[in-house]
Amino acid sequence: MRWSPASRCSDALQEYPNLTGTKKDCNQGACGACTVLCDGERTLACLALAVQYEGAEITTIEGFCKDGELHPLQAALMEHDGFQCGYCTPGQICSAVGMMREFQAGLPSAVTADVSANALEFSDEEIKERMSGNLCRCGAYVGIRAAIHEAFRSGVPR
Ligand code: FES
Ligand code: FES
User: Fold this and answer.
1) Among the atoms of ligand 1, which is closest to the Cα of residue 47?
2) pLDDT of the residue at 118
3) Which mean pLDDT values do the consecutive 10-residue runs of the chain (158 residues) have?
4) Which ligand sits nearest to residue 138's alpha carbon?
């Protein structure tokens, strides 16, 4: 392996032949394409030094398909045409699963009207705000949101 602890996670991951799904686009934290889950929390791999995450459990897009079965969000994205070129999709999936965990934990967002409410509403507005760091140059946002709604209804994340 050519990477060192000072490498960014996105560069380190690219060195593993079986972990090529994580994408790098802007390389400056602006597009979300490189999002992975570090100990379950969404993280921009292009801004994270590998050494920061020594010992952490890192989930890349390769970790979502289990025993040949698509993760419910992957299946929903296919059903709702939630992608075109697919370049942003690994990051969208990692980010959406992390985002749903944050939502289920009761963390408010900038558009949450009542942060003291017992039950937040998983609305389009909440999804738009919470996923605003993940850009899709193909503009597949309508399908992405529909897929996230469906996956959330089915109980994702897992
Ligand atoms: S490549 Fe990391 S945020 Fe764009
Ligand atoms: S599907 Fe092409 S960038 Fe999102």
Assistant:
1) 2
2) 74
3) 82 91 96 97 96 93 94 97 97 98 94 84 97 98 98 84
4) 2
User: Mind listing the domains of the chain with CATH numbers?
Assistant: 9-63 (3.10.20.30), 72-152 (1.10.150.120)
Other beta carbons within 10 angstroms of residue 114's beta carbon come to 9
What does the pLDDT read at residue 129?
Answer: 98
The residue behind tokens 């999936």 is 93
| Nearest ligand 2 atom to alpha carbon 138 | 2
Q: Which of 36, 46, 134 to mutate to test the pocket of ligand 1 (most atoms within 8 A of CB)?
A: 46
pLDDT given at position 52: 92
Distance 143 CA to ligand 2 centre (A): 11
- C-alpha count within 13 angstroms, C-beta hemisphere, residue 59: 17
Q: Measured between alpha carbons, how far is 134 from 130 in angstroms, rounded to an integer?
A: 9
Name the residue at shortest CA distance from atom 3 of ligand 1: 29
